[in-house]
Specification:
Length: 396
Amino acid sequence: MAEDIKDNNGQNNNGNKKRRALMIFGVIVIVGFIIGFFYLQYSKNRKSTDDAYIEGPIHMISPKVSGEVKSVHISDNQQVKAGDLLVEIDPEVYEQKLKEAETSMAVETRLLSEIEASIDVQHKKIQISGAGYKGAISRKNELNALLSARDSDLMTQTTRLKQAEIDYNRAKNLFEKGVVPKDMYDKAKTAYDAALSEKKSAEEIKRQAEIAITSQDRNINQVDSQNKVDNAVINQLEDSILTQKEKINRSKAVVDLAKIDLSYTKIYAPADGYITKKNVEIGNYIRTGQALMAIVPLNEIFVVANFKENQMTAIKPGQRVEIKADAYPGKIFIGHVESIMSGTGAAFSLFPSENATGNFVKVVQRIPIKIVFEKGSGAENLLKVGMSVVPTVITK
């Protein structure tokens, strides 16, 4: 009887243990299912890749003029600010070129002043000759008026001479016939001689007036011809001014270029950053376009992450990104998706894959996306261009 009771108790204990074990196993399964469910949900909303690298703008520093390096003001890996002086090229040759260009420009400018002074002289000559021309015209008008008066006087004297000749011939006939005394004949002859003399005098005066008018016309023609010559000279000088101004403009352009070349003998930093790949020393002869160094602005670095195409469904610009760097385990940098490339990396490679062959194998393509760091994340103080990182995009 006692043995039966013990057997029953043992069976009960075994049953209880089995039930407890089943319950514990069930709880573990349920908890694992819940954890797996939430992990799947967590993983579904987080897209990650280890094919990602730090990139950023790299400013290659090259000289714009050739020459011997006079001084170098930086060293490898030095931090510089935009506008800092990096390298100086010996400016002697370029200073001499600038002096020659300025001298040539000064000569051309002086020639322009001389031409302008000649034009002023010609204008004054024209003004003086113009005044003489007006005076000659006025004098000619006076002579024409005088000639007109002499014409009238000559006509009067001619009329008087005709009348005196008639009176003289009548008196002569009557005197020869003894009709009139000799004194009447003498009076008629004297009157005729006087009229003839006065007519000749009037003709001489008219001839002198005509000569004076002819001489005045000649003077007027000479003044007019000289004015035409002076005006032609002015036109030529004005054309010369245009040509000279063009020469001055060309000289000024040469001076400006010489100044620019001289300014290029000093090479300044185009942006904030760090010096790398320095390849210049004092005394080196450098040529235009030669690579001297590079400046890497770490405050402008970003991540280029290559995600698989089947990960791109939920990735959109603006989404938050957590970035881990191999160099700083345990540290997370925060950024966001800025843009997504409009093509796969293979599509823009130098040797794109040829799928039009008989041995096609489907390969999951990767699409680059650009991730920028949030301000204050500290990435610019720690991360360098080329480092490997692991970005995780939070899609929800």
